[in-house]
Design goal:
By secondary structure, the protein is mainly β. Helix content is about 0%, strand content about 35%.
Length: about 170
């Protein structure tokens, strides 16, 4: 995967070498991408012709830690995973058929993998997560939360005109 976009293929007749924790008994297609900086990543199989399982591993295709696995969050048999932040490294994406039905056969056929990379994620300043990947979490630690005039940019707990030391820096407002 070289960038945001839609990647297509067909799993008909492919061998089942891998399985995710949420399913994946049929044959799969495996993709990978390499991130050089913290990135928000959204993956889905909307447009796929079968019940797809989508799972992501970090570092190694065969033995990497599974970071996410989904079967139907994308609606109508489509899978979807959304990472608010992934750090630099190599990631493997598996588009797999959910199961092999004894009567209906394998979940296989033409698929679409939709990929969105956002390499400039914005820090949400009141959720306890390092959304922008700079190693700092929320106000007052993350300087990205202390700029601007809109209080939503600085987090719900930070107020400039209430006569209280909201950020704990021993200064009022």
């Amino acid at each position: 995967i070289t960038g945001s976009g839609s990647y297509t293929g067909d799993t008909t007749g492919t061998k089942s070498d891998y399985k995710g924790s949420c399913g994946g008994d049929a044959g799969e297609a495996v993709f990978y991408f390499v991130l050089g900086k913290p990135t928000q990543v959204l993956l889905d199989t909307v447009g796929t012709s079968f019940d797809a399982a989508l799972y992501v591993r970090a570092g190694s295709c065969e033995s990497g830690a599974e970071l996410a696995c989904d079967d139907d969050s994308g609606g109508a048999w489509a899978a979807k995973v959304d990472f608010s932040i992934l750090y630099p490294g190599t990631y493997y994406v598996f588009v797999d058929g959910f199961t092999v039905d004894p009567n209906g056969g394998a979940n296989e056929g033409p698929f679409t993998l939709n990929v969105t990379f956002n390499q400039e994620p914005k820090e949400l300043c009141d959720n306890g997560i390092d959304d922008d990947g700079d190693g700092l979490i929320d106000f007052p630690r993350d300087p990205g939360c202390a700029i601007g005039t809109d209080l939503s940019e600085r987090g719900a707990a930070y107020q400039c005109d209430n006569g209280v030391d909201d950020d704990g820096d021993v200064s009022i407002d």
